[in-house]
Design brief:
By secondary structure, the chain is α/β, with parallel strands linked by helices. It contains 8 helices and 12 strands. The strands form 4 sheets. A 3-stranded mixed beta sheet has the order 1-2-3, with helices on one face. The protein has a 3-stranded mixed beta sheet with strand order 4-5-6. Strands 7-8-9 form a 3-stranded mixed beta sheet, with no helix packed on it. The longest helix is centred in the first third of the chain and has 16 residues. The chain starts with 25 loop residues before the first helix and ends in a 16-residue tail after the last helix. The chain binds arginine (ARG). Arginine binds next to loops.
Length: 264
């Protein structure tokens, strides 16, 4: 995680940020971030990346890169506003003992924001359409030698894969079907059995219910309806709701604020 010392909405690069320029409460953001951190620390060890001035979106560490074991592909951001994060992410991964894999300089890829490992089968879900380039899924498969399913995102509100899809323990998949084109929906249905698919309604998706931190039995998320929480409980999970309203103004929820460094 990266502390929100310099977090704010300073530019608009997704629809959520519209109208929120200079409209975040720094103290509240810090409290919400600390609350999320405290929840995660009950189940995992949290490492911090030092925040940097004038890089307000650096709090969203999901976008730093994609980690597999001790290997990492460091993100290449589409927007100029976030490209300044790249050297800091490179340095952090190198200092923390990760092997940085080669990645073409001109191929946009926004890390674990757009690439998520399934928790029930050896499969990498890779999103493209808004931030990561269409050529990314095939290259991830080659570089990581890992079976990859390409998913085409079509709703600008769900511009990163982790805003609309969340792999959960035992092969469950929480997702918002309408964020994907038909071909992608069909491939999700072919790869995940019906009883393992938890389809969110639009109202829940707009609360970023799919942007959930998978902590094994527990799931940390910004918000979800009682109906969705019940559905998750029926599948054996305990939803832990923690408001992240300040980060929602930048288009991010719980999962965006984290990057998983170990498979668990
Ligand atoms: N303002 C950030 C952006 O538009 C939010 C990133 C959210 N991160 C994520 N993994 N979905 O890039």
């Amino acid at each position: 995680m990266c502390p929100p010392d310099h977090f704010e909405v300073a530019y608009v690069i997704n629809p959520w940020m519209e109208g929120h320029r200079a409209n975040t409460d720094g103290a509240l953001a810090y409290k919400q971030w600390n609350d999320l951190r405290a929840i995660i620390e009950q189940y995992a060890n949290v490492l911090l990346e030092p925040p940097q001035r004038r890089l307000p979106d650096m709090v969203f560490t999901a976008n730093a890169g994609l980690v597999l074991g001790k290997k990492v592909i460091v993100s290449r951001f589409r927007s100029a506003e976030r490209q300044g994060e790249e050297p800091h992410n490179h340095a952090w991964f190198a200092e923390n003992g990760f092997e940085i894999l080669d990645w073409p300089q001109d191929l946009f890829f926004e890390g674990a924001g757009d690439a998520l490992f399934d928790r029930g089968q050896e499969l990498l879900w890779a999103g493209h359409g808004f931030r990561s380039d269409a050529a990314v899924p095939a290259l991830l498969q080659e570089r990581l030698n890992y079976k990859t399913a390409a998913l085409n995102l079509i709703d600008p509100r769900f511009y990163h894969l982790d805003t609309c899809l969340c792999p959960l323990a035992h092969g469950y998949l929480l997702y918002f079907p309408a964020a994907f084109d038909e071909k992608s929906r069909t491939s999700i249905e072919a790869l995940v059995p019906a009883d393992k698919r938890i389809a969110a309604e639009e109202a829940d998706a707009l609360k970023f219910c799919c942007n959930a931190v998978d902590l094994g039995t527990h799931i940390a998320l910004n918000d979800a309806s009682e109906a969705l929480q019940d559905r998750l409980r029926m599948a054996g999970f305990t939803p832990v709701i923690t408001s992240l309203s300040e980060f929602m103004k930048a288009g991010g929820g719980a999962k965006c604020l984290t990057l998983k460094l170990v498979e668990a």
